[in-house]
Specification:
By secondary structure, the chain is α/β, with parallel strands linked by helices. It is 52% helix and 8% strand.
């Protein structure tokens, strides 16, 4: 069975990679070769960029032996719901530091549409895992989980509390339920699959996955193309269906059992109004120019960074595939749909405690504090 599967995968790889290549990025390949080294990600990059934010007692473990470990609060919810405001307010009350849990905020140079909190608005609360990965790198959920685990241990070793803040549910799941080992991203294969998706639609990728791994395809929505595409990549790179590997997940880290998730659930129409207003502000503040600069610097248009909501439609505009008004309106729709999916994701996660309202509401902040302190 394995032999025939590998033969089928090799034929598929040949068929896919025999298509004409489009736009190679020498700078990206060089950078990727360096940045796949986890030591570069989690030592050189994060430490150099975050050094100014670290308290001076960094590195000194001040915990008492056999000390009962406090809960790790995770503030999640849809985009534009006020997670950052709530995280900062809560961190100030409990002596905490924020660990970013947003898949776009990790990237350097990706600023305008990411809602990164400016230094002037962090009110003295240290923020970690922000602006520490090159946009040339396709940083994965597993990469983030390893970095977050190390950062939480470091923060708690200094007698501080760690708060996870962000709306990328897949990141949080990777920390609570670690993934099995998988091969590093094959950028050429990913580019071919992305080209197929753009030309023939995500449903076509799902049909391909049905041939490679019917069990996995049955679990995935045909339009959930990131997971569908990654499952195809895994099959083609390893010769094994990803569904066979799921039982081989490693044990969760010891801190996983202490994660307590607080999710924001603001009124939908008000949330959508905020999303629309924020999108227009992003374009007015120079989003198109930011994307043009990133493309000129060699960041691939199909990278994780520029494939994010708020950036993908700008790339299409710059390539002449749509006009500016269309890019703005489609971005609003994309982000509203993304917010809806975020809420649905966290509704299906176990142990989530919901707060009605926005994170900048003092009443919501007070309720979150009571939850975090165990008084509710």
């Amino acid at each position: 069975m394995t032999r025939s599967w590998q033969s089928f995968s090799c034929e598929s790889i040949h068929a896919i990679l025999s298509q004409p290549n489009h736009r190679r990025h020498h700078a990206a390949r060089v950078h990727l070769a360096r940045d796949r080294d986890s030591a570069y990600h989690f030592s050189r990059v994060s430490e150099s960029i975050l050094a100014d934010q670290e308290p001076k007692e960094c590195g000194q473990d001040v915990r008492a032996p056999n000390e009962v470990r406090a809960p790790i609060i995770a503030i999640v919810g849809p985009t534009a719901s006020g997670k950052s405001e709530l995280g900062i307010a809560l961190a100030q009350r409990i002596g905490g530091e924020i660990v970013n849990c947003d898949s776009v905020q990790v990237y350097q140079g990706i600023q305008i549409a990411t809602a990164k909190v400016p230094l002037s608005e962090r009110r003295g609360v240290p923020h970690h895992l922000i602006d520490f990965v090159s946009p040339l790198v396709n940083f994965t959920a597993a990469d983030w989980a390893r970095a977050a685990n190390e950062k939480i241990e470091e923060i708690e070793g200094r007698g501080r509390s760690a708060l996870l803040v962000g709306g990328t549910g897949f990141y949080l799941r990777a920390l609570r339920q670690p993934f099995f080992d998988s091969p590093p991203t094959d950028e050429e294969l990913r580019a071919r699959l992305t080209q197929i998706r753009e030309q023939r639609g995500p449903e076509h990728l799902h049909r391909l996955l049905q041939r490679f791994d019917a069990a996995e395809a049955a679990k995935l929505n045909p339009r959930d193309w990131p997971r569908v595409q990654r499952a195809i990549e895994f099959c083609l790179q390893t010769g094994e269906p990803i569904s066979r590997q799921r039982p081989l997940r490693p044990e969760p880290p010891s801190l996983a059992s202490r994660i307590r998730i607080i999710a924001l659930s603001p009124p939908r129409q008000e949330l959508y109004a905020r999303i629309n207003e924020r999108t227009e502000t992003h374009f007015a503040n120079g989003l198109v120019e930011e994307v043009r600069r990133l493309l000129e610097e060699g960041v691939p248009a199909n990278s994780n960074a520029l494939g994010a909501h708020g950036y993908r439609r700008v790339v299409e505009f710059l390539r002449g595939r749509r006009d500016l008004d269309s890019a703005i309106e489609q971005t609003k729709l994309d982000v509203r749909h993304y917010a809806k999916r975020q809420v649905s994701w966290f509704r299906h996660e176990p142990g989530v405690e919901w707060l009605e309202g926005f994170g900048d509401d003092p009443d919501v902040q007070a309720k979150a504090y009571r939850l975090s302190s165990g008084s509710v």
